[in-house]
Amino acid sequence: MKNAKAKKNILITTNDFNNTAEKLYPYIDATLILDTTRVNEEHEKTYKVIQSNLQADHKVLP
After folding, report:
1. What is the chain's mean pLDDT, rounded?
2. What angle do CA 10, 51, 60 make, to 5 degrees?
3. Which of 3, 8, 48, 45 lies closest to 28, judged by CA?
4. How far apart are CA 52 and CA 40, in angstroms?
5. Reported pTM
6. Do 28 and 11 touch, CB atoms closer than 8 A?
7. Sign of CA dihedral 23, 4, 15, 29
8. Which residues have C-beta within 8 Å of that of residue 44, sequence separation ≥ 6?
9. Please, are residues 56 and 49 in contact by the beta-carbon 8 Å criterion?
10. What is the pLDDT of residues 18-32, one digit of tens each?
11. Is 21 left (phi over 0), alpha (psi -120 to 50) or beta?
């Protein structure tokens, strides 16, 4: 992306619940997180499991 000629570059990642995405934070202007927990009960359960697992590792969601 360093040599990109576009005025704006868009990078999309999905379900990346590890530190890999954090490496990009110094290079981005904005972060948008789509919260789908209210779409249905299954999404809410999945979110709670992910959040619980991260908290057990002393981490938080972005």
Report:
1. 80
2. 65
3. 8
4. 19
5. 0.52
6. yes
7. positive
8. 37, 38
9. no
10. 667 777 778 788 777
11. alpha
